[in-house]
Amino acid sequence: MKKPRAKVAAILLLLFSALPGQAQRPTRQVTLCEEVVGLFVPRFMFKVPAKTLARIEIRMCGPGVSETLQLVAWERNSNDPSLIIDTTDFTLVRSFMGGNVFVAETTGGPRYRLFVIVYRSGKPDLALRRVSTDRCELSVDSKAIHLRVTDSRYNKEEKFTFKTDD
What we know:
The structure is a single chain. By secondary structure, the chain is mostly beta strands. 10% of the residues lie in helices and 48% in strands. The strands form 3 sheets. A 5-stranded antiparallel beta sheet has the order 1-5-4-3-2, with no helix packed on it. A hairpin with a 2-residue loop joins strand 6 and strand 7. The chain starts with a helix and ends with a strand.
């Protein structure tokens, strides 16, 4: 009788791992969207091609069809991305990179999604993902990026600080 429960647990795990807006460590089944519409590099290097640097690409999926956005993060000298986020949204509200911290705010309906990717020891990590009915507030100083995320529908406010040094 334990085998049917194991099958149900495996099916539920697969269903929840495929929810929209989820970050995925890429496998061979993950398809990168073709069109790169934005490129962010923590540190440019003289005479070094951007495609070999650590970077984050904003990609448009399904031009002329669904046009959703994908965030793709690469480590330095890697042939494959380290992190892929299918946002399921079609509008980029804002994007910003300061040092090793990348912020993207997207929308595709009556809410906003906020994604923060931080490079730690050269590896990209999804440090924050939030959904809100209000836009986030972003401020920057010489050492950090500060975010204030409010949701007026639930009378909720969160504040986050990300240091911009590696």
